[in-house]
Amino acid sequence: MERILVVGVTGAGKSTLARAVGERLGVPFHEMDALYYTGPDWAVNATIAEDVGRIAAGPRWIIDSLGYPEVRDQLWDRADTVIWLDYPRRVVMPRVLRRSLARSARREVLFGGNRESWRGWLSREHPAWWAWSQYAGRRRELRRRTGDARFAPLRTLRFTHPRATAGWLAGLAPAALRERRAGT
């Protein structure tokens, strides 16, 4: 596992897991939303394809996303591992709601200096609405990609419950331990 995509629906815990796996394996973590949203009013990075291309060309990385359409194939073509958090709605929706409520209440600064706002809850683009409306389509896209012969060489780990993911992560040897075992 050198070039890893952590995929799933909004609220599955992709960023949290990607960060933890990156730390355990000593692989640089890149947060897709931070690469994608670079300015006020959720402005999209004009050089996203080039920026992600530089990361994807590298020997080791972990990214927390299926990939925005502009970079999706670029990432999937270069990845060697996909970790799919395929959790049910009853798991992800409470997570999305708690996260968005906390972000709105704390006025937490997010990507590009943006914040979730109380007014934003009325928008179809709000994470809670987005998670609900995109759930089925995102799962279909992930099923299609993980079953596509083009991506058959990818090692795919699919977890359907957070306990299974936590158990797998707990068994993942930290980078320092693997180095000691290898004698480096």
UniProtKB/TrEMBL annotation:
<keyword id="KW-0418">Kinase</keyword>
<keyword id="KW-0808">Transferase</keyword>
<dbReference type="InterPro" id="IPR052922">
    <property type="entry name" value="Cytidylate_Kinase-2"/>
</dbReference>
<dbReference type="InterPro" id="IPR003959">
    <property type="entry name" value="ATPase_AAA_core"/>
</dbReference>
<dbReference type="GO" id="GO:0016887">
    <property type="term" value="F:ATP hydrolysis activity"/>
</dbReference>
<dbReference type="GO" id="GO:0005524">
    <property type="term" value="F:ATP binding"/>
</dbReference>
<dbReference type="InterPro" id="IPR027417">
    <property type="entry name" value="P-loop_NTPase"/>
</dbReference>
<dbReference type="Pfam" id="PF00004">
    <property type="entry name" value="AAA"/>
</dbReference>
<feature type="domain" description="ATPase AAA-type core">
    <location>
        <begin position="4"/>
        <end position="38"/>
    </location>
</feature>
<dbReference type="GO" id="GO:0016301">
    <property type="term" value="F:kinase activity"/>
</dbReference>
<protein>
    <submittedName>
        <fullName>Adenylate kinase</fullName>
    </submittedName>
</protein>
